[in-house]
TrEMBL record:
<feature type="domain" description="HD">
    <location>
        <begin position="35"/>
        <end position="121"/>
    </location>
</feature>
<protein>
    <submittedName>
        <fullName>HD domain-containing protein</fullName>
    </submittedName>
</protein>
<dbReference type="InterPro" id="IPR006674">
    <property type="entry name" value="HD_domain"/>
</dbReference>
<dbReference type="InterPro" id="IPR003607">
    <property type="entry name" value="HD/PDEase_dom"/>
</dbReference>
<dbReference type="Pfam" id="PF01966">
    <property type="entry name" value="HD"/>
</dbReference>
C-alpha cells in the first residue's frame, strides 16, 4: 500500500517527508495491530476535529497518532517509566533529529504523554485534544455516533480491526505488566487488575494515610 496521498472519509494522510519517514519507522518497529490502530487514531482524530470545527496541524496530529503506542514495545518493558512517556520521548527524539521546531515537538510530546489522561487534553491545543479523541474513539468507542457509519467503514476498510478489543488489551497487558507501579493513578491499572493475577493497584487514600507524616 502506498503511503502517499492515502485518503479515507475525506481525510488525507500528510504526504510530507517527515510523515513518510515516521510511517516507515512505525511500520518497521511495531506490529500490524499497533500500526493499524495508530493510523485509525489519526483518521478518527481528524474527523473529530472536523466535527468540532477545530483548526489543527494535520502533520503534528499524524505524528502524535503514529508514535502514541510505541512505548508498548519490548525494548521499553523494563524502562520503569509510563509507556506514554516512553512513547512521547521516542517521538521527541525522532522530531528533534529532523530539526522540527521545539514548540511543535512539545505539542506532539504532550499529545502522546496525556493520551490516557481523560479530562485534560480536550482543553489544550487541538493536536493534543485530537490525539486523545482519536484514541478514545478507536479504543473506547467514546462519541461513536458522532461520526457516520460511512466514515467509520471507510477508515476500517483501510485499516481493519479484527478481534481488536481482545488484541489491544493483550498489547496493553504485555506492555506494562513488568512495570506495574507506573499504573498508579491511571487507567492502565484496570488492565492489570483484569489480566495479571496477584496485581494490587495502588490506593491513593492509603498512600496518604501511610505516608511518613504524623498528621
Amino acid at each position: 500500500m502506498s503511503i502517499d496521498l492515502v485518503t479515507a472519509a475525506g481525510v488525507t494522510v500528510p504526504a510530507t517527508q517527515l510523515a513518510r519517514e515516521a510511517t516507515e519507522l512505525i511500520r518497521d518497529t511495531t506490529d500490524e495491530l499497533i500500526y493499524h490502530h495508530s493510523r485509525r487514531v489519526y483518521f478518527f482524530g481528524s474527523l473529530q476535529g472536523r466535527e468540532r470545527d477545530l483548526g489543527f496541524d494535520a502533520e503534528l496530529l499524524y505524528l502524535g497518532a503514529m508514535f502514541h503506542d510505541v512505548g508498548l514495545n519490548q525494548e521499553f518493558h523494563d524502562s520503569g517509566r509510563r509507556f506514554e512517556v516512553d512513547s512521547a520521548d521516542e517521538a521527541r527524539r525522532f522530531l528533534q533529529s529532523h530539526g522540527v521546531p521545539e514548540d511543535s515537538v512539545r505539542r506532539v510530546w504532550t499529545s502522546i504523554a496525556l493520551h490516557t489522561t481523560p479530562g485534560i487534553p480536550q482543553f489544550m491545543e487541538p493536536e493534543v485534544a485530537l490525539v486523545t479523541a482519536g484514541v478514545e474513539y478507536d479504543v473506547l468507542g467514546i462519541g461513536y455516533d458522532s461520526l457516520s457509519a460511512e466514515e467509520r467503514d471507510a477508515v476500517v476498510a483501510l485499516h481493519p480491526r479484527p478481534d481488536f478489543k481482545r488484541r489491544i488489551l493483550d498489547a496493553f497487558t504485555d506492555g506494562i505488566r513488568s512495570k506495574p507501579d507506573t499504573t498508579f493513578g491511571n487507567v492502565k491499572a484496570d488492565v492489570l487488575e483484569h489480566f495479571v493475577p496477584g496485581f494490587e493497584r495502588g490506593d491513593f487514600v492509603r498512600t496518604i494515610q501511610d505516608s511518613a507524616w504524623k498528621e
